[in-house]
Amino acid sequence: MFVAELLEAGMLVCFGLSWPMNAWKAYKAGTAQGSSWQFLALICAGYACGIAAKLTLGTLNWVLAVYLLNCVFLAANWAVYFRNRRLDALREVPEGTHAAQDARSCALSASASRPAA
């Protein structure tokens, strides 16, 4: 049984190491384009099934901690995804709205306060 636990933990560690890298790349990209909430939700469902299997079988062991750590990393990916969606929405503010006018007036006031070259 120990070998099975070790292999399961190895699989989870491989997935777990990829989540922080994915979150960092998405954070630097600053856009949710190419990201999928459906993919993240499917991964969450998979982890929930794995945790439920551990609880149902009564095999509460150290591998459960790896599942939970992966869930923390996945939560960071969700946070970056929603941050990037907000940034995408801000870039798509239509002309004529108060937000677009505020952005233009901030840009004008910033350029007016610069000394002439």
Describe the structure.
The chain has helices at 2-29, 37-57, 62-91, 98-112. The protein is an all-alpha fold. It has a domain at 36-86. α2 packs antiparallel against α3 (62-91). It starts with a helix and ends in a 5-residue tail after the last helix. The model is unreliable at 106-117 (pLDDT under 50).
Overall shape: it is elongated
SS strand fraction: under 5%
Ends apart, CA distance between termini = 74 Å
Tell me the number of strands. Answer: 0
Q: Which residue ranges are poorly predicted, with pLDDT under 50 across at least 5 consecutive positions?
A: 106-117
The chain-level mean pLDDT equals 84
Structure in a nutshell:
80% of the residues lie in helices and 0% in strands. The protein has 117 residues and is an all-alpha fold. The protein has a domain at 36-86.
Features:
0% strand, mainly alpha, single chain, disordered C terminus, 117 residues
